[in-house]
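quick one, 166 residues, struct below
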Amino acid sequence: MNKFVHQRHKSPTHLTRPRELIVACVPMRSNVNISQIARTASACAVEKMIICGNASLISKIARDATSELSVSTHRSLAPVLKKLKQNGYRLVGIEQTSNSHNIHDFSFHRRTVLVIGNERLGINDEILNQLDDVIEIPVWGMPHSYNAASAANMALYEYCRQFPQG
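---
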């Protein structure tokens, strides 16, 4: 007889304060990626997500995220980021650049907007120039980068690891 009783699903970890993290996605080609990012953002107790262009969530993929996460759609991300920066948010993009920081050595600020790039084109120069920081996730094989949803999920998890109570 097994001495251990395993509980398949546990209740979410209680946060002592709301997360001050916003996920912002540049226009993407794939609603699957957007939906996967939304699902992870919701699991991380992120309350707000910004999407651009013609993106929309696929409810079967995003699942519970649609009720827990406030998603707003904008034509352009640049003016939204400008306002968020004026409101004290630190703008952090996930991208491989000459000045990007390894995510393993990066300390997030509590008030952060995590900017996710396009699957093929990354983050354009207009948005890159607005960012306070750019982080990259090391890659040890081919291709040279993770897909947008995978990279976003890793960065979301790292933020939550650094601020486990919210």
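The chain has six helices and seven strands.
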